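Narrative of activities, Objective 1.

The group set out to show that a structural description can be obtained from nothing but a protein's sequence at a throughput compatible with the screening campaign. Below is one input-output pair from the validation batch, recorded exactly as produced.
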Amino acid sequence: MNTTHPTPYPEVNTLLQELLESVQAILGSHFVGMYLDGSLTSGDFDQDSDVDFVVVTDDEISGDLFAALQAMHERIATIDSWCAIQLEGSYMSQRALRRYDPAHTLHPNIERGRGERLKRIHHDEAWDIHRYVLRERGITLAGPAPRALIDPVSPARLRQAMLTLLSGWAAQILHEPAQIKHRGYQSYTVLSLCRVLYTLQYGTVVSKPVAARWAQATLNERWVPLIERAWAGRHAPGLEVSSEDVNETLEFIRYAMLTGLAVGQLDVKLS
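Output recorded for this entry:
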C-alpha cells in the first residue's frame, strides 16, 4: 500500500497526510495506527462521500490529548478543500477496537459537516460493521495490519449489528420524521437500509451502491423508484424532500424492521 497516495484522489491524499502527521504529533507514543474504511475501501467513493478514518491508540484518549485533537480538527476544517469537512472518524484504544465490549463504548468521534466538533459518543454493537470493513478491506495509512488488531466478525455479529441499527437509529427516524426532510439524510437513510437488508440476507457487508442495486433487483418493485431518487438525491443534499418520499421512506423503514423481526430479536414498535 502506498501510504503517500493511499487513494486515487489527490486532494483526499493531501488531507489525509495532514491528518496523519497532526495526529502522530499530538499522540506521540500513544499512536498505534491510522486506517481508512467506508467507501474509500470499496471503490465507490465520490465527492458526496465521507472520508472515513479510524485512529487506534494504546489507551483511551482524555484530558489534554482530547483537547489537542479537538483543536486540530477545528483547524483542518478550515482548509480550502472540498474534502476538508468530509472527515468522519473515531479514536479507539486497541482494547476497544479488538471486539465489541459493552463496558467500553465511549470514544472520541468526529462527524462530517461544517461546524462539527470532536466529541465522545457511544460506539454500540452496530460498530461491528466498521470492525468488519476495517479487518477485511481497510486501508492502512500507518501501523500494523488491521487483522492483527481486530478479531474476526462473524455473520451472526454482522446481522446483530444491523438489528441494533434498526432498533436504534431507524426507530428514532420513525419517531422524528423531520430528520429526513432534506435529501441528504433521506438519501442516506434509504441507501443505508438497502445495506441493512443485504446483510440480514447474506451475513456480509457491501457498499451502499452494491446494496442499492441488489435491492432494486431483488425486493418488491415498489421500492425501486424510491431507491433511484435516493441515489440521485445524494448530489443535492440541501433540497427538501416531498411529503410522498418522506412517507415512503418511513414505510421502507417499517419494511426493514419486519425483515429484522423475521431474522432475529428486534425489540421495537413499528408504529
